[in-house]
Amino acid sequence: MSRGDGGTAVSPAVMSMRLPSQPGEVIDRHTRFTFRWNGRRYPAFDGDTIASALAACGERVFSRSFKYHRPRGLLTASFLDPGCIVQVGDEPNVRAAHRLAEPGLDVRSQDTWPSLAFDVKAANQLFTRFLPAGFYYKTFIRPHRLWPAYERVLERFAHGGSTSAHLPVPERLRAYDKRHANPDVVVAGGGPAGMAAAVAAARAGASVLLVEEEQALGGHLRWGGADELAAMRELQRRVEQTSGIEVLTDSVVLGRYDGNWLAVLQRGLPQVHERLVKARAKTLVVAAGLIERPYVFAGNDLPGVLLSTAVRRLVNLHAVKPGERAVILSANPEGDAAAADLERVGVTVAHVEDVRRGGDVVRVRGRGRVGEVQLRGGRRLECDLLVTATGWTAPVSLLTMAGAVPEYDPRAARFRPDVSRLPGDVLATGGILGDGSLDELLAHGEATGHEAARRARDKAAAVPVPALSVQPHPECFHGPTHGFVDFSEDVSSNDLLTAVEEGYDSVELVKRYTTATMGPTQGKLESVNVVAIVAEATGRTITQTGTTTWRPPYAPVTLGALAGPVREPVRRSPMQAWHERHGAIPLVAGAWIRPDAYGDPADEVRAVREGVGIIDVTPIGKLDLRGPDVPKLLNLLYVNRWSKLDVGRVRYGVMCGEDGVVIDDGVTGRLGAEHYLMSTTSSGAAAVWEWVESWLQTEHADWQVHVTPVTTAYASVNIAGPRSRQLLGRLVEDVDLSPDAFPYMHVRTGRVAGVDGCVVWRIGFTGELSYELHAPASYGLHVWESLLDRGQDLAVRPFGIEAQRILRLEKGHLIVGQDTDGLTRAFSAGLDGLVKLDKDDFLGRPELTWQAENKGHARLVGLRLADGSVVPDEGSQLVADGSRICGRVTSSRHSPTLGRAVCLAQVTASLAKPGTEVTVRLVDGRSVTAKVTEHLAQVDPEGERLRA
Amino acid sequence: MILLPCPWCGPRAADEYAYLGELTPRPDPQRATRTEWRDYLYLRANLAGWTTERWYHRMGCRRYLTVQRHTVSNDVRSVAAAGSGGEP
Fold first, then answer.
1. Contact call for B54 and A259, based on CB within 8 A
2. pLDDT tens for residues A241-272?
3. pLDDT tens readout for residues A745-786
4. Which end of chain A is more exposed for a tag (fewer CB within 10 A), N or C?
5. Which of A278, A280, A690, A697 to mutate to test the interface with B (most CBs of B within 10 A)?
6. Which of A698, A700, A704, A705 is the best residue to mutate to test the B interface, defined by the most B CB atoms within 10 Å of its own CB?
7. Which residues fall within 8 angstroms of residue A115, CB to CB, at 6 or more apart?
8. pLDDT value at A648 more than 60
9. Helix, strand, or coil here: A245?
């Protein structure tokens, strides 16, 4: 779009089409402001929609159509209007006939280039014979190699506005919200029947949520005459004065799901852009009213062709004169009322063509807007406005989601829901069911609301609500010429005939082939016309043809509203703030933020190997197990033996699923006769807890074991390195750390740095002499700082996750999920020595027994590369015979201790023997050779350092 | 969304629970053949009708439940603590 016409150069627009004050107008003439439309300033009153403000200034073109880039203006002047979808600031696809204008808005037309007035892509309409139904399917299919190029071309021609990824994220995320609601009754639709139902239900004692799509209650009464306005105000007063009704305006029920769970979208709130209300209703009352449908004839998309309800909305709600000289095609009282409205405000009504007396419109002509109408019989009339009133569509969406089937009623010329198939907790009232005078609608709404409240209390004995009468309406869907059926997808009646000729004879197939009803209006305007035209083309009745399926969501919803605000919990150890103050690079590990490294991880590794280092391992999962049957539980969960674990001992264990796949590992220590502390991997903490509970609650409910997750109750620190005993010795008061008193794989409890209740394990993930200290979490920082303070002369330093990963890899300790995957059984994880198949029962035993018999499985091995300078990427493939994949590198790092790469790899059985030469295919395509090592550990394979 | 009555917490929406699938009796791990064991691990009847299934009230009382549910209507016939009997 052109940007040169901005602000100062062009004078602001003038409200040339604004009418004097109207009795039902919703604008506040005392509050006047301006906003921008394609760079030019436009005045508006408070209460104006973007489109009504533009129309009041004489603007008639709001967008270019989807395929042919034809100029489009107002059609329905409602949320559904396919011709006025615009960009507002950063927000694309805003419904301009619904969204209220605000001071300073920057509104632009979407997908027009270079400008709305002169759109290059409109050349498409000169070549309509080249864009038949299925054009894109047929044209952009071969050859496959051009698909990326096709994509770029099509993208440029696609609709949809644009959004910026550069807005400050918090602002965007704050703009969405979620809420739960549990009302007795939800009434979807705030027209007369809906309001009557809400009041009756609330008076019967029910809590009611009344949801209205427009900005105010009233439905079609809002644009009616004096009697309708009086009735509306009385109903609004009753709603306001009846306690127990919560009204949500500018909101819509998107879908009805199992158990009357309703997704309600709330828009237009002051601080929140959109809110998703998850409402569990005891009873749902659908009072969605009726939607007026367009008429199909040549030129029916020209700006100036309006529905009768659009005219009535513009005149009565927004005091906008829709044109100067009108012709009206009327098949019903609403059309006649639109004619009366226009005459009243001084629009010349040149002619009313009455469908009920055989009248019809042949075509409309004009250059970019209506100029002339040709009527049946050839009569031509000059005009700038053609108003059509040719029938209604019942938006049965919510009812069909609940099981109702729409059935065509030829007398009323519309589909009506067969409510006999609705479950007892869904009712309907108002225009969606039938016609009737205002009094009849109100009586029906009241009876339905009363019944809804009754069913909310007592779902049983349902009293049927009497049916509403239906008024005859002529069946009129299209004139003698072809025109647009789906305005938002640019599908014409001719396209539908083409599709039928090509063999797509079912309405569901025609829909998918032509994309009719698949655009932003989602069938609400066009589905009945599509069905009628397909019925005619196939020689069937509309009843035989049936309708397409209505699915949720009923109205468009942003992904932001579905996602809601970000409320992901983040976990930090009591020492994380210290880490960040001391330059630690944060690492997101599941829900935790952890220190990845404080500086060069290689320095941290050396410090641990040569002196002493400390690492914060608080996220390690910890379960406190108590009870006489804990040994039985451990024997079931772990693949190794657990019955004889003495108090004060710690053992490493591996857990497998029932399919034999490794799911977690860790150590468990026995603190007392019936008291154990189990540790799990950091990422597996929550899942292991549930896994333990599942076996205790389902298969072994008789076992006496109590499980308490204590992961965050303790701050955990691993003190590792040859000087770790010396360092810890300065802080413990009542624990003898000497190797004989506290050997490898033992546990002690005691007082550390003055803190009682600490648990100390002597274990060694890093391969060094090390102690894992679990201190009550609130003392975590104190213990951490004490260790650093008291170890200054020992050159103690903190190390991060990266250094720990290098250290454990040098030692050949596997990480579940890194060196194993979702298919790795225990014998493929180098755990042969651990699995005790002679144990009675443990989880995974049958599958592991069969795996052991088979022998042909993959294995975890260590790799040593011939070229010491190469560190292969994790995930690099091992290949044999040039191209056959026979394994992959699961872990790989440069080892500062050895001065070369250390790797773990999964390899096929035939390559697992130590000394076997394998080929590693690097990411850059080079191949390097490597040898399978004797042990998984490449530093201290004998474990002398650990046991020091 | 399905409304599932928890025997401890009352009626709660299904998104508070983890659905763990149809209950299949665990064969004797000492005696099961490979076929029997893998049927237990992987095969489910997937009935359109009444099924007995396991749910876990993850966002509530954290109890494992045995639920009899009709998979077409989502009617719930009974909910009980897992391991309290009444399982196939």
1. no
2. 999 999 999 999 999 999 999 999 999 888 88
3. 999 999 999 999 999 999 989 999 999 999 999 999 999 999
4. C
5. A697
6. A698
7. A1, A2, A38
8. yes
9. strand
Residue B34 belongs to some domain of the structure = yes
Residue A132: pLDDT above 80? no
Alpha-carbon Rg for chain B, nearest whole angstrom, is 14
Counted across chains A and B, CB pairs separated by less than 8 A come out at 51
Phi and psi, residue A509, nearest 5°: -75, -40
- B13 with A261: Cβ contact below 8 A: yes
Q: With both helix axes pointing from N to C terminus, report the angle between A438-457 and A226-241 in degrees, rounded to the nearest 10.
A: 20
Given a contact cutoff of 8 angstroms between Cβ atoms, the answer to whether A194 and A445 are in contact is yes
In a domain, B88, yes or no: no
Coil, strand or helix at A935: coil
Distance to chain A for B43, nearest Cα, Å = 13
Q: Tell me if B87 is assigned to some domain.
A: no
Residue A544 host element (H or E)? helix A542-545
- How would you list the strands of the sheet with A797-798, edge to edge? A746-752, A755-762, A770-776, A714-720, A613-616, A797-798
Residue B73: inside a domain = yes
**CA of B61, closest CA in chain A: separation in Å?**
12
For chain B, the domain total comes to: 1
Give the closest-approach CA distance of A397 to chain B in angstroms.
17
Q: What was the ipTM of the complex prediction?
A: 0.96
Task: Convert A162-186 to b/e letters by CB count within 10 Å (16 or more is b).
Answer: eeeeeeeeeeeeebbbbeebebbbb
Q: Report yes or no: B22 and B45 within 8 Å, Cβ to Cβ.
A: yes
Number of Cβ within a 10 Å radius of residue A121: 16
Decide if A259 touches B, using CB distance below 8 A: yes
Domain CATH for B11: 3.30.2270.10
Confirm if B70 and B50 have CB atoms less than 8 A apart. Answer: yes
- pTM to 2 decimal places: 0.85
